[in-house]
Amino acid sequence: MKEPDAGGQIRPPSPQSPQTGAGPARADGQPPRGELPPPGQYPPPGQYPPPGYPADGSQYGGYPYGYAPPQPTNGMALASFIVSLVSLFSCPLLGGVAVYLGRRSREEIRRTGQQGDGLAQAGVIIGWCGVGFGVLMALFMVVYFGFIITMLNSSTAGF
Q1: Is residue 131 in a domain?
Q2: What pLDDT tens digit does each residue of the chain (159 aa) get?
Q3: Domain total for the chain?
Q4: Residue 1 in domain
Q5: For the whole prediction, is pTM greater than 0.90?
Q6: Helix (H, G, I), strand (E, B) or coil at 124
Q7: Which of 106, 104, 97, 99 is nearest to 123 (CA)?
């Protein structure tokens, strides 16, 4: 709500745009102060461009005001994901390494704000799947070789 001035009157808003702070167009044909000229038009020679307008005249500069460059992806999260895939397809014992890397990287991501939380979480989940697969393979091998040893003992006992 607008505050009344000293005389108790509420004044109408000024003719400036609330988003850019620019007023009506200037008489010399230049864009209002603080606004960018249309694409392809440069400021007159010898004058500095208005704030926000790239100094070299290009239309695309770095990141616009108010935007930060994206954070890099956490390397440990990527390593966790890769090691978890290796553990799933070739060496299930590496699943524990993937789980460790994934947990450490998630802590680091929370602390630093880097990208890669999804990779770290996938590394932890796939790593646990690799560990479970390794345990099942070990149990299968124990049962299999136990069965073979039992069969060999029973067949030699008859002689």
Answers
A1: yes
A2: 556 666 666 666 555 544 544 456 566 666 566 666 666 666 566 666 566 655 555 555 555 666 778 889 999 999 999 999 999 999 988 999 999 999 999 999 999 999 999 999 999 999 999 999 999 999 999 999 999 999 999 887 665
A3: 1
A4: no
A5: no
A6: helix
A7: 99
